[in-house]
Write a structure and sequence with these properties.
heterodimer, A: 472 residues, alpha+beta, eleven-stranded mixed sheet, B: 58 residues, mainly alpha
Chain lengths: 472, 58
């Protein structure tokens, strides 16, 4: 009988137990699904389970390993997917009533790769409807709750992915991020979230929100798990027009190299502006600790960041309105009120607005590229505000009331506009709720981003604490 | 602005409810208040993401 405490292990740790045949992937899949089903009414992390198919996959993994065919660190490990990612012949709802019976015509590219890695996919995860929001208050599948405090927001749009990872309802998950949708929930739920470089991971078979901003990436409990999961899903795919034919390095190779000799860029005018003082202090504290470990800090200047919110909003409004044009015309009443409003607003964006936003993106990309000639990474808070209460429309920053959505995603959007890789790692606690630090890096240099993330993780900024609703 | 947004959407066959038109107009105002002014950088006139390449489209 497997001890349920194994569910609190990292994906890599449990993968080692599977590889050495100390744990059966079949038994682990049963245990994982049972826990996920039991906690789901409280957390609304999952939209659907696929226990029979998952058990078939687990039996195959067990047989392969027994026969000496070990596929790698995720072989036999139970994972779960945001419900925007296609599983051939299975329902992919996009968290939407309008798509609740939508059957995916094929596997997503990342699903093909996870299958090749031998992973077991146990279910599909809740998300903000159509990925068009950050609260994960989903009117059709329930509001995803934060495992650190169910009265708090899990964040979105990959809120189910982050909550499931934090609460040990899957060993790792995949999310998608067009405006912070991996990093915001990962930070609010005290997990690791990686938005890879645009083009690093194929988005073929991820139903898009905004195609020029969207990325698929992992949400995990450790930085090593993020590296291993990225390794499994990265690579060129000619079916994705944005996919880059770029070599995929070994993302684990330099993880433990520390930060000695690395240069950390800090941008003060935007990436610390309108930030909760306590979060700014935590972030600066992390930077100071990294300096103690041999990093150097350089200030960088990125003036076009001032226009990033506008450019991101115009781009996502216009692209999402195009993607969902027919849905809005034919099924408007079947959309949640907030999503319907956003899709309607997108219809009013002018061509000039959209093209102006693209000009600003190119300018911002040049500023980042120039900055990365002087620095290895740029550090900032991931989210400028402490975890809001579930259902909040406004939040307080240093005593001032501000709107929710734009403020939660403000520091994340720039990396969507430019496509640079960005990682969030837990950095501390405020009122017993986790806070993340964001690490942005050069295009296709996820290895350095992960290396710095691992150095932050090594500082043990949460003091070993985990979400009260975790199995640990 | 209410009528502008309403007319724009109506031309596209979209007819928000009255309450929604008001909310849309509010968001529209906020967006345009934060639009980049003439001092904002333009970069190249044509962003590469929108360059048409005959016979080489993905």
């Amino acid at each position: 009988m497997t001890d349920p405490a194994v569910l609190a292990l990292s994906a890599v740790e449990v993968g080692e137990l599977i590889a050495t045949r100390q744990i059966s992937p079949v038994e682990l899949t049963r245990l994982q699904t049972e826990r996920a089903r039991r906690l789901n009414p409280q957390l609304h992390a999952y939209i659907s389970f696929r226990e029979d198919r998952a058990l078939t996959e687990a039996r195959t993994a067990e047989a392969e390993i027994a026969a000496g065919h070990h596929r790698g660190p995720l072989h036999g490990v139970p994972l779960a997917l945001k419900d925007s990612l296609f599983l051939a012949g299975e329902t992919t709802t996009l968290g939407a009533h309008t798509h609740r019976d939508h059957r995916a015509p094929h596997d997503a590219a990342v699903v093909e790769k996870l299958r090749a890695a031998g992973a077991v996919i146990i279910g599909k995860l809740n998300m903000h409807e159509h990925a068009w929001g950050v609260s994960n208050a989903n009117p059709w599948f329930g509001t995803t709750r934060n495992p650190w405090d169910p009265h708090r927001m899990a964040g979105g749009s990959s809120g189910g992915s982050a909550a499931a990872t934090a609460a040990d309802l899957a060993f790792a998950t995949l999310g998608a991020d067009a405006a912070g949708s991996i990093r915001v929930p990962a930070a609010l739920c005290g997990t690791v979230g990686l938005k890879p470089t645009y083009g690093r991971v194929s988005t073929h078979g991820d139903f898009p929100l905004a195609w020029s901003l969207g990325h698929v990436g992992p949400i995990t409990r450790t930085v090593t798990d993020a590296a291993v999961t990225l390794q499994a899903i990265a690579g060129h795919d000619p079916r994705d027009p944005a996919s880059a034919d770029t070599p995929v390095p070994d993302f684990r190779a330099g993880l433990e190299s520390g930060v000695a000799g690395l240069v950390i860029g800090v941008e003060e005018d935007f990436l610390f502006h309108h930030c909760d003082d306590r979060i700014a202090t935590i972030t600066r504290g992390i930077i100071d600790r990294l300096v103690e470990h041999g990093a150097r800090v350089v200030e960088v200047d990125l003036p076009t960041l001032a226009h990033s919110e506008w450019a991101g909003t115009m781009t996502s409004l216009a692209e999402a309105a195009t993607v969902h044009h027919r849905t809005l015309l034919d099924h408007a009443a079947g959309l949640g009120a907030d999503v319907r409003l956003q899709l309607q607003l997108g219809q009013a964006v002018s061509a000039v607005d959209y093209l102006r936003a693209q000009q600003l993106r190119r300018h911002l990309d040049r500023e980042f590229t120039t900055a990365f000639e002087r620095v290895d990474v740029i550090l900032s808070p991931t989210v400028p505000v402490p975890t809001p209460r579930a259902g909040a429309q406004r939040i307080e920053v240093n005593g001032r009331s501000v709107g929710l959505g734009g403020n939660l995603i403000r520091y994340c959007v720039p990396a969507n506009l430019t496509g640079h890789p960005a990682l969030t790692v837990p950095a501390g606690l405020i009122d017993a709720l986790p806070v993340g630090v964001q690490i942005m890096g050069r295009a296709f240099d996820e290895a350095t981003v992960l290396r710095v993330g691992r150095a932050v993780e090594s500082l043990d900024p949460l003091g070993g604490r985990r979400a009260p609703l975790s199995a640990g | 602005m209410d009528t502008t947004v309403k007319a724009l959407l109506a031309a596209r066959g979209i007819h928000p409810a009255d309450g929604e038109t008001e909310a849309l107009a509010g968001r529209w105002h906020r967006l345009h208040r934060t639009a980049p002014g003439p001092e904002a950088p333009c970069g190249d006139p044509t962003p590469p993401i929108l360059v048409f390449r005959p016979g080489r489209q993905p």
